[in-house]
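Course exercise 7: structure representation. Students receive a sequence record and must write out the corresponding structure in token form. The form below is the worked example handed out in class, using ABC3 transporter permease C-terminal domain-containing protein (951 residues). Read each field label carefully; the graders check that inputs and outputs are placed in the correct fields and that the protein name is recorded exactly as given.

STUDENT ID: A-19
EXERCISE PROTEIN: ABC3 transporter permease C-terminal domain-containing protein
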Amino acid sequence: MSVLSGWRAAFRMARRDAVRTKGRSALVVAMIALPVLGVTAADLTYRSALPTEAEELTAELGSADARFSSTSMGPVKLQQMPDGVNWGTPEGAPEPSPEVQAKPVDVPAAFPEGSRYLTERSVPASVTTRHGIADTEIGELRVADPMMRGRVELTDGAYPRARDEIAATTAFAEASGLSIGDTVTVRGPEQTYILTGTVELPADLRADSLYALPGSVIAPWQQAADRDKAILPPQPSDPTWLVKGPPGAGVTWQDILAANERGVVVKSRQVALDPPPDSEVPMSALSNGYSTEVETTAAVLTVAAMAVLEIVLLAGPAFAVGARRSRRQLGLVGACGGSRGQVRAVVLAGGAVLGGAGAVAGVGAGFGLTALFRPMIEDYTGSRFGELTVRPWEILGIAALGLATGVLAALAPAIVAGRQSVLESLTGRRGTRRGSRVLPVVGVIAIAAGVAVAVYGGVAGDTAFVAGGSVLAELGVLACIPVIVGILGRLGRRLPLTPRIALRDAARNRGRTAPAVAAVMAAVAGSVAIATYTSSSAAEQAYDHVPNMTPGTLALAAADTGADAGLPRSRAAVEQNYPVSGKAADFGRVWAGSDCSVYYQDENDCGELQFVKPTGEGHSCPLKGEGAKELALRLSADGHKRTMNSPACMDENYTMVAFGTGEHKIVIGGPDVLDTYVKLDDPAAAKALDEGTPVLLNSAYAKNGEVTLKATHTYSDRDTENRAGHPGKARTTTDRLKVYVAPDRYAATPGIRMVMPRQTAENLGLHVEDYGSFYTLGRDATDAERQAAYAALDQAGNKAYLMASDEELRTEDDTILLILALFAGVVTLGAAAITTGLSKADAEADLTTLSAVGAPPGLRRSLSGFQCLVVAGTGVLLGTAAGLVPAIALRLTDLRAALAEMRADPMQSAYTPIVMPWGTLALLALVVPVLAGLLAAALTGSRQTLARRAG
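STUDENT ANSWER:
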């Protein structure tokens, strides 16, 4: 018999065996198809969501051929790169004079003859909404023109075609509550427009803007400002021109060179897609020669290798069980003169048949799911797919990967089947085989070596060593899994019947159990590694975060000096629309020297109040000056944080100006400011304020309970204009002002360093003015509440502005952790379900015997549950341990970088914590295994009909 005919017979037997054992075959096909499905869907999504250069140009230009724009250089000769991004004057050319730069550039004169064009400008504006007022950007662009297709698309209604019409992006319409037909008013000039439709930018679905016809917003606004000086003139962007070149010609490189002669920069679709040779580009390109292609290729190969390993680990036991259940058939092949190679060929052919079926099913399902979930993916990524991009060779490679993994998964069972004697195969005996004693030793050595290499890579800052060591350690754990499973079998001696049988069955059938545990471990390890690194990085960011205000508070501050008369109405606007709780705490501002407007001019020109910090221990920051670097490196992370937060260092590294207090951070207020904003619950401090004694929050400025305030002009002597407007020296310098010093932990209060009673400031000869209020928020305000509050402030005269405490930092990180946990949980459930199904198929004779001797009907159900629990729980625990290795090593890399920054600046923190994602771990270690066991038990039939004697 020829080799070809032998394989033909093997494939025929494999096909018939697959049809005969439909349940096991479907299980194997599903296991191969699922990863293929995932990789296919990921490839299609990545290739479709990642815009090509042509799609990026469409998102920027629409269907236009080019974008023309002027520069700040004036009508001088320029040079540019073909990408239209990098440009400059020719090398050696003199710098254009201010007079030349002020000259306008005649951009339309640079268009190719026979071109058609659109103009585009945008302006920031405040507009009315259904809820109140919102800030947005209005683009003056004829979006109805066919030249805009691909960049702006209509989703509902109609494009604006008259000067009193406007269109909104879908995101803006949803946030503002506006509907088609509503009126939109641009505040300032009070121009009204009818909302005729909603549009979307396919490249930016979250865009928040409005579109009107050219000349319908900016020009009338400017005219209104010219007539009424109370109206602020618009501040539009520089115009650009979208050009459609002559039919069939487009905008060529020669057109660009001609435009550069006039001082015009051009981005051409034709040139960007087919750039000219370097010899024709006057401006030479500077390239750093760095390419991420090698790193990307390595990452893709690593992911592909892990996918192959995952499939082999999951599907391998199914082929092993199938080979054992077909051992009589395989024995007959040998009894009829078949060689060991032919026996192996039958098993390998089964892998090829099922692998091919799984590959085809996975690729087909990947296409279907990508098309089905495409709208959801586009909403999540914030951009539309240009088209469903299919790269045939990549899809064929993925299918070949599924086929190859099916064959690889059948390789080990084929070798075992080929080694079995014909007598054992015909009689059904399994024989005995001792576990390898060498493999666990090799595994322990690999674990130790992998951890050492990963740690070295982390300390040295080499991520290649981190990755290599982590993989080596994980392979070492894989080698130890059979021994671990065997040890688990011995732990069941004192357990009830079903968990004892489950543990012993897992230990007795390690060839089936160990790969499934390994598959769970591999999936969990990756998720735990990413989750640990993500949660640790988020903790580091939260640790270094400097809040702009006390958490959960809102500040209302006057927009300018002399605006205090309108504060009562502004306060009412806030209290009626924001979710405030409790009473407002009013505060004022204080300054010295000449009266002037701090809104339009630097407050320093008004005579700034400054704290004069005493010298000596407790007043000078130890992380500044001589010996600071050595001290910073000696301190622990917590010690460095405490030093940074100490009063002496608090204002050395970061200064935040808030609520019009200036850099001196002194506010006028009473005990209610301490209670509402500072959160200082101290009767002695409140009493001090009532008695006229200021409360100092930063003790570094005090000496013997007294501070020195210095009022001085800080502009330079050359600044004659400011000196003429505010002549003379500052009026007041206060030495040794008695204060009440708050505990050191209040030195970090955002925006405030001292609370001074009004009467005390007036007695010192300082200027005092009511300036705003602090509020405690019961919850975060919604978009509708903010817009309503802005509208109410506008009705109150628009004499005040709002500042709210910044939001939490970890919302996106929490989402990432949840996705990782769900991914690992799905793989865990799948692997556990596979092993449970194989266990039932492999131990059918044992279950039949148990039923025959009187085992209760629920035994099968509970046994399936515990078998599933054993696989899931063991894999999760091992995966958690394996996943910590790369996470810790990568954090060591971050620590190395942070220490380098600290050596350069001792004020920089080197805090790089390792934070366990306990929520993710709890979900994986507790919820998922228990859920897997319960599902297995629920889906298993409790009764079995004995059709004949087993065996």
